[in-house]
């Protein structure tokens, strides 16, 4: 699947003019990437602060209607970003990430997020009450499965 890769300058201008602005044809290139890489690129632009959360979440919400597996793929992207932003010292990027995931809760099932995200992230999103108790329950369940 070919994916459209846009330069950072166009992404910044897109936010100002809405999604009506088309890039000049010579400013973009097609690269053979999959949908997960494209979703990662969009979400990482939000984490970096280059795109507004509400714009991206509305676009992602519309995209989820196109394929049944997109919520799962987006949850995988959130998992990767969870690991990346959890290790960062920059609190604002982590805040951007949690706000993005929070804005996407309406179309990414809570069950999928609980499988893939860090318990501390789930706690900050309000999906679980306490990360420590959640970890204890996971250990008990896994122990019983042995």
From TrEMBL:
GO cellular component entries: THO complex part of transcription export complex
InterPro entries per UniProt: Tho2 (IPR040007)
Any one biological process term the GO annotation gives: mRNA processing
Gene Ontology MF terms: mRNA binding
Database matches in PANTHER family: THO COMPLEX SUBUNIT 2, THO2 PROTEIN
Protein name listed in UniProt: THO complex 2
